[in-house]
Here is the input.
Amino acid sequence: AKIFFLDNDVNTVLKALAKSGYDLATDESSRFAPALNTEKLLSQYADPQIHLSSWPIDSWHAPQGRDILVWAGSVDHNGFGCELPVIKARAIIPATPLQVLELIMDSSRAMEYNKMSQGRTDLLMLQEGIETPAKESAYGVAGEIKVIKSLNKPPLLRRTIEMISLIYARPLENAEGYLAVNRSLWEDSSATLKQTKDTVRSEMILGVNVFRPVPGIKDNQTYCELTTITHAHAPIVPDAIARKMGPTHAVTFLRHVQEIFA
Here is the structure.
């Protein structure tokens, strides 16, 4: 695998992450199979795949009300992590896309929607301001860029899962809305999953959030349709359990975000 260094490859890394993340989150093909009760929910919709004139994807699985749709799939390459599941989930949040994105980017609020969180901290702010234009960026990219450290304690696991990630948020280039992507970083070129007696390092291969504006239920409000992608590797979690629990965790996350803005 090719190694990129954050100190001199920021522009290359961010543009590649943004493209990969957007392409994966907006892939409505059969590579993603419905999970949990999603197939049943879609069968109850009058039109399970709709055409959105203001959205660049021709056919779209749009959730209704407080429904949460979730799929399990895989990446379309044979590179690192190709054997690990990719979980996609989607729900309507009763807040604007920017409000939801600001929640996700605020490390001090991570425990509000992630009940396994033991805290998240900002280690390095490379560029502040989600609406920062590319022409004002030292890296030639729009949006906010920072490095974060998160600690999570899943039930039944004795050790805490640690993750250090680059997170990048910006307005979408080809439609209204926003995109946030994150990818694990390493302190050196060994890219090893360091462990201690209390913690184990895990890897976010690719995390994505796409925030699309949708009409609200009342008073002509603008709500947010949030699509999430999780492609991760946790060495202390057996693959069979990760495949089983991944969709459930994605739904739980979206339900907590819905409840914050209820």
About this structure: The CA atoms of residues 63 and 151 lie 31 Å apart. DSSP finds five helices and ten strands in the chain. The beta strands are 33-34, 68-73, 86-93, 117-127, 144-152, 160-171, 178-184, 199-201, 203-215, 222-233. The longest helix spans residues 239-260.
